Queue: 2 jobs
Job 1
Amino acid sequence: MLFFVLSSLFSMAEAQGNPHYMTTDPAISEMLTSISMPRHMGNVSFTGASSDPAIREMLISMDMPRYAGNVPAETISGSWQLDLSEGSYIELALLQSGSAIFGKGTITNQTLSQEAFASGSVSGSSLNLEVVPESATELYAISVDISSLPYEGTYVVFQADSGLQSGTITASKNASI
């Protein structure tokens, strides 16, 4: 019995060292096939991390295609102010890596100002952010059209204890970081 187990382990190790080895696990087999598959991007231009076909394909397979999108010529990095129709405003210092956007700032309403963290993506003329205040009781899902000034869009606030709130947003970029 011990001989059988040891010989099986040795055979597996030897097979995986073989470049023509095909695993029986369908997920691993599909991943290996996908890695060696040629990629065709057409006439779409990508910059940053999303220009690497392997990374782009990985992001799509992780259900994160938003990070593999078209990156606009305009740099998103900078200091942003987002004015919400219900009277609150969000100030963010945003950074950009390819189409990925992230940063931190503050959310201020009539009674409270608190630190906030943002992440999202940019694709073409659309800036999409998710902002969470430090209290972590709300999630602001924001979409801004950055094709022309003034930058305008919509938002939805998911509130932990009382449902949803939505409205319009006006955004402005103050300067590069």
Note: The two ends are 66 Å apart (CA to CA).
Job 2
Amino acid sequence: MDKTGLSPDVTAYISKLEAQVQEQSVRIDRLTDIVAKFQKTMYGQSSEKSKYVVSGENGLQIALFNEAEAEAKSKAPEPDKVAISGYTRKPKRTKEELAAELPVVEIFCELDKATLACNECGGTMRDLGKEMVREELEIIPAQVRLLRYVRHSYVCESCEKETGEATIVKAPTPAPVIKRSLASASTVAHVMYQKYVNGLPLYRQEKDWANHGIVLSRATLANWIIRSATDWLMPIGERMKSHLLAQPVVHADESVIQVLKEEGKKPSSESRMWVYCSGNTGTPPVVLFEYQPTRSGEHARRFLRGFQGYLQTDGYSGYDKVANVTRCGCWAHYPRNMIIREEFLKAA
């Protein structure tokens, strides 16, 4: 702005206004940046990128549940460099380290008796020694076989001769995993592992069984999973829950999960996988997952009914519904929230 010809008072006033405008512009930019961070925190995608492991002398601090997210972004530790003939390089993993726990089958390559004659003089050659040439990884494809239990019955010959009545005893047989079913323990474990660990849907497993010449519908596979979970896994889960609620510390968290076909909900809607974990004071440690269609704190209140120890969570208010517990904060969430609040206070 050209201030030529203006009085000193007017010039000073204009300079003061320009300084105020400049100061306010800087403040507006800072507040805009803070609001953007706040909006991202409130409405944007937010997953903890760091894995925190907090330990203390009393052993009440535990690791958080964001290990998968942290490991996905982390890099493998760099190995120490070793000196090789005047220069350094990173040591390579040896085959022995890669396959340290695998069983070893040695394949001996020997000459036939007919070829033991020396090509030079015709004399018989003797074994001079052996050397390891190479190593290979071999995979043995899965085999499916039918286990047929044949029970023997036994009769007492003495009783039969003396009394004319036969005393018959039948040999005991192992209890089936599912009555009147072809399912064995290994079969059910395989189906569950493929679905929940390898993420292989039942319709693909159905085709895989067909490739082995066995017709098993996806409905049958689903019933195997449901029956086995109900009869064998749920009692173990209830015992683990009883052990968890008796611990002095429980860590709780919930993560977003989508269910494609759920009655009364759109595939794009968000559900929750609730996670409850004991501290490192419990032996053995317990981690339990519970699916719920909502994030309501009622789920935590119902699950933790009877627990009266320390409950460590993030700042979600839904955990306030859990009664008779001592709430503990989470250091992983503390810095993020406090930095935003401090920036607001400084800018105010």
Note: Strands lie at 82-84, 87-89, 153-155, 168-170, 249-257, 271-278, 287-292, 310-312, 326-328.
